[in-house]
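Homework help thread (please don't just give me the answer)

Our assignment gives two proteins as sequence + structure token strings and asks us to describe the second one. The first is just a warm-up. Here they are:
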Amino acid sequence: MNAKASHYLQKFSIYIVLVILFIACSLISPYFIQSSNLINVARQLCVGILIAYGEMLLIVSGFLDLSVGSVLALAGVLSVSAYKSTQSMFVAVLVALVVAVGCNLINALFVANFNVPAFIATLGMQQAARGLALYYTGGQNILQLGDFVKVGQGTIGPIPVPVIIVVCISIVIWYIVNNTRYGRGLYAIGGSRSAAEASGINSKKSIYKSYIINGLLVGVAGMIFMARNNAGLPNGAVGYEMTGLTAAIVGGTSFTGGIGTVSGTIAGAFIIGFLENVMNLVGVNPYIQQVIEGFIIVLAVAFDVVSKSKKSQKVIVKDE
């Protein structure tokens, strides 16, 4: 295989895998290909895709967020509570975004200004946000959401409202990543933060922007999650940070930073979604599903490390 063919194969491998998986799932279960099932898969993936976008932006620049699930729950239950008190969707949206962005600003403060590793800073926020969600609700679910459920369960024509929201956000994230100075700077920071700063990129400002965008995405995801479940769940979304990380990494985002795309992240999310869906259809034990997803993460990271190692060796050989 010549170098050009190898380059294209590597570039589009994730999409080839997605197509092959789609065909395989269609053969494994006749129910998979049904339009109602595919629409259901798309609806269920909306929260995961939004979280994955935030993780992708952070990982590309060399950081991450382990507090996603807890912040999502806190923003979601406070948004639900605000809606029940005011019957105003505007207030509900505002509360969700302010809470999620506020939590992420705290993450950014520790990471950017105090040089606390993102792993530690966001792990602390994971505990704090979950505790606040449970304290506010007394550990009880908030029920009877009224029209709030339309955010997660409504449709416009045949298309689910969450899908429309995610498509619109996807366009915005794609534009930010590919057509703004901030987006281009993410890759430079992920490649080498010191080199990026030497070239005039304000890494602290970029970190704050990344966590703010992550907060906006988590806030929207929190509303969709609660509306889809028709309840404010303070114990909800446990482990969702792994959902986002898995989709981003499987979609080609390098855990060592500097590499990642919006389209790849979407493909990664659908690969995980298709796998989960077909496993549910054929009756695979939920605990075994977790085992399989765990192996997928490890294999994706291992593949990334090996690929980078091979590229480095090629560069060294050429230099010699």
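The one we have to describe:
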Amino acid sequence: MTSGLQIKDEDCGFNKNLFCVPKHYEDDLERVFIPHGLILDRTERLARDIMQDMGNHPIFALCVLKGGYKFFADLMDHIKALNRNTDQSVPITVDFVRTKSYCNDVPNGMVSIIGEELSAFKGKNILVVEDIIDTGKTIQALLSKIKEYEPQMVKVVSLLVKRTIRSSGYKPDYTGFEIPDKFVVGYALDYNEYFRDLNHICILNEKAKEKYKL
């Protein structure tokens, strides 16, 4: 289990005016929390760690939608580069599953899992790719469902893990960043389907939360 890059509770990020952000979101963002370049560099390191641990076996990569799609795509690109440019080379297959547990910026206690062909997990080495782990309930529900189909091995990589009193205590096998209990958007993480088109991971201001509230 690899520890993520820890971002301290008092770390408030960076002035948004130092970065390129879409004009239509300029008034909605408080700060840039994790710049895009840092995300990509950390993702490359995660790819190396994953290949070191799982690289002797074919990998069945499972993307958790919707928030995980950017992290998943970039992680797969780094793993494919390792396949091309090192002696270690393994086949990778991909699939997608969708989970939902948020309304506005609050976990709603309901976990829904939508996926197809789950029987394909049987006997496979599964790499579950998540965007963020908050309470841990969503990923635990998904893992419970996956294990019903008797995979050979299951590993979980999450770009973000929150330090929160709501946590069930679950920790993934690989963590990109361990962050304070802040609600963040960008890099495909959303607030009611907005802000997925931000490159950086950012903190919303309170006005934006009200503006895009359901």
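TA reply:
I won't write it for you, but here's a hint about the kind of observation we're looking for: Strands lie at 5-6, 29-34, 59-65, 92-103, 106-115, 125-133, 153-162, 174-179, 184-185, 201-204.
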